[in-house]
């Protein structure tokens, strides 16, 4: 008798476990004509508890605060005809990829502000945006860039159809559109994540 009960309940369990579960969808009540299985959420809606992820975030926080915004901005100021406030970082920042590091940094500090609430990050983001706006104003045409001679190459060559590449460059500039994209992405994050309206104007 006990064996029959065990077999019966096992069979019932198998039948119900094999049935397809009904899927749940989310309706936003907005203009979308479809429903969603998942919706994105903001970084500030997540609180990390003690553990490896929080520890990693704390290490990232320290690392980001060790960088100096004026060093990232140095070559932007030089290209705009302004005096740099610090020596530029070297490595790729000495090449025609100069400027992409600032874009990555601006994105990172905006995300870290949303993650930690540390006001130093938003203060740095505002400072970088203000400095880029100053470079843009000094240039006079709305251009901001950090790679040497970039504006001249775009204005006197590329815009006139004189386009040359040896496989991974544009008229001698190493991935200028990649670099500009990183700068614009950083400005977009400053606007979207930190509400810095001037970032949208500069962008």
Overview of this protein structure:
The chain has helices at 2-18, 52-66, 69-79, 100-116, 119-139, 150-156, 176-194, 197-202. It has 203 residues and is mainly α. Helix 4 (100-116) packs antiparallel against helix 5 (119-139). The mean pLDDT is 87.
Q: Tell me the distance between the termini.
A: 77 Å
Strand content: under 5%
Tell me the overall shape.
globular
Structural class from helices and strands?
mainly alpha
User: What's the helix count?
Assistant: 8
Instruction: Name the average pLDDT.
Output: 87
Which assembly state applies to the chains in this document?
single chain
Q: Major sheet: size, sense and barrel closure?
A: none
Order of helices and strands: HHHHHHHH
Kindly provide the radius of gyration, computed on alpha-carbon positions and rounded to a whole number of angstroms: 26 Å
Topology overview:
Elements: H1 2-18, H2 52-66, H3 69-79, H4 100-116, H5 119-139, H6 150-156, H7 176-194, H8 197-202
Key words describing this protein structure:
203 residues; mainly alpha; 8 helices
Question: Would you kindly provide a brief summary of this structure?
Answer:
This protein has helices at 2-18, 52-66, 69-79, 100-116, 119-139, 150-156, 176-194, 197-202. The chain is mainly α and 203 residues long.
């Amino acid at each position: 008798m006990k064996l029959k009960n065990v077999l019966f309940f096992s069979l019932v369990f198998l039948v119900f476990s094999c049935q397809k579960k009904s899927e749940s969808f989310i309706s936003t009540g907005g203009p979308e004509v479809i429903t969603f299985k998942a919706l994105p959420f903001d970084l500030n809606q997540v609180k990390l508890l003690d553990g490896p992820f929080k520890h990693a975030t704390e290490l990232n926080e320290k690392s980001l605060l060790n960088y100096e915004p004026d060093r990232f901005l140095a070559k932007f100021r030089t290209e705009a005809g302004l005096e740099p406030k610090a020596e530029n970082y070297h490595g790729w920042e000495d090449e025609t990829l100069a400027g992409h590091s600032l874009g990555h940094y601006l994105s990172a500090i905006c995300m870290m502000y949303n993650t930690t609430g540390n006001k130093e990050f938003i203060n740095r983001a505002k400072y970088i945006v203000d400095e880029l706006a100053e470079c843009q104003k000094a240039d006079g045409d709305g251009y901001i860039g950090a790679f040497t001679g970039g504006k001249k190459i775009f204005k006197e060559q590329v815009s006139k159809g004189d386009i040359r590449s040896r496989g991974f460059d544009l008229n001698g500039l190493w991935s200028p559109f990649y670099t500009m994209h990183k700068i614009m992405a950083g400005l977009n994050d400053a606007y979207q994540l930190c509400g810095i309206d001037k970032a949208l104007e500069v962008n």
